[in-house]
Amino acid sequence: MTWGAVLFAAIAGVLILLFWLWRWLRKTRPEADSGGSEKEILDNNTDKKDKEEEEGSDREGVENKQQGNRITSGCIEWPGQIMMSRSRVVKELVDDLLRFLRTRLSNRFVPVLQPAIGVGSAFEGWSPCEADDAVYQLLVPLEPPAGHSFHRELATLGRIPARDYRIRVVLECACRVRNMLCFIHSPKHHVRMKNRPPYMLDFLCTELYLDVEKLALWFRRLVKQACVALPRARHYKMEVLPYSQRTCQLRLTSDSGSPLYVEMILGVQLGCTDIFLTSHSAEDPYALSTIWQLSYAVAESIFFSHMTSQVPQGSFHLRCLHLCTRMLKDTEFSPYTLKTIVMHFLNTRPVSSWCRRDCFRQVVGDILNCLHRCLERKELNHFFFGNKNMPEEIYLPKHFEESKPYNILQHLVQNPDAHARALRQCEQLREELLEGLPD
């Protein structure tokens, strides 16, 4: 018991000695381990918080500035890069599709599908909407099969310019063509005995006239069947959309899940010109299905392609047009109105004036000022009618050049309220757009 008590007392004394030694060391270094007094810690935390708030404010300001840039510079930069790249992909896919269909239909008496032509703003390098919302339009020219011919007839008389046509399908004698069945001199029962598929007058026409809706339905069915057979279908999910009775709309979804929207428009060439009669939606929703509308889309595409090769900075005019049309969202102006102004500018101004070295603000201002002057006069001439200064690369019907200029703002002449509203919207658009651009 004595030795146990001694051992316990010795251990307790050592522990007490170590405790007091630890207290003495803490007093000699009062704040060394704590990193500073409470006030200093609070001050440091406050400074750190202020710094973080300042950095957060800076980040917010940068983000706001970047957001503002997306409204101006961002909208200017994207068309030439993103849309042209996507348009090439779309064109290759549609070309493969049409090649497959031509092979499949080679021995049938149906319209012959020609290589597609990219048209519309997406193929021209600008768009009035975001890149992901762009619709890639292609015109698919049709030629009559052997033993047939297409005759274009005006559907409305007295309208200037005439836009509505009908296409009459006429049978031609093919008796002298080797291994060719003549639909004129061969009895119908003999034709059926040859096990030929029914010719186009039976299922693609209405009263001898090419029917837009029947033709579009036939084409959509062919495309739907061909999508699964294409080699590229492994990389894209190709879906035929049911939203149009006069065209063929596709949704192409890549492996990454990004969709591209495509619209194929059927068309018949007007002579040997760049003007087509197309199946695109008619202005009148109650128009007969045998009505085909005059389209300048191919001629416009050729014009923009030609000017892009001439302008020193090939996409500068497209950026101006894109920015201006993007601002039309809440107005009654059509993007085609500003497109017409830009086409007139490109055709009359020296190409050297369309350059990044010039003031971008001034060029955009010129476009909007021209729009305002046209609204004041209630007059803006259509680009292809009565234009004596057309580039040689564009082939137009002779009567286009000889006709009087056509005013695309004619509707404002008969509607004073619409005219006053258009002027107010133009002034507001000009003020908002020019204030958002740097000097």
Instruction: State the helical fraction.
Output: 40-55%
Shape: flat
Rg of Cα set: 36 Å
Q: Detail the poorly predicted runs.
A: 28-76
Report the sheet-strand fraction: 5-15%
Number of strands: 12
Largest sheet: 10 strands, mixed
Report the average pLDDT across residues. 79
Q: Report the span from N to C terminus.
A: 100 Å
One letter per element, helices H and strands E, the order comes to HHHHEEHEEEHHEEHEEEEEHHHHHHH
Tell me the structural class: alpha+beta
Discrete helix count: 15
Fill in the keyword field for this structure.
single chain; 439 residues; ten-stranded mixed beta sheet; two-stranded antiparallel ribbon
Describe this structure as you would to a colleague:
There is one protein chain. Helices cover 48% and strands 15% of the residues. It is an alpha+beta fold. Strands 1, 2, 3, 4, 5, 8, 9, 10, 11 and 12 form a ten-stranded mixed beta sheet that branches. Strands 6-7 form a two-stranded antiparallel sheet. A hairpin with a 6-residue loop joins strand 8 and strand 9. The longest helix is centred in the N-terminal third of the chain and has 34 residues. The chain starts with a helix and ends with a helix. About 11% of the residues have low confidence.
Structure at a glance:
Helix content is 48%, strand content 15%. It has 15 helices and twelve strands.
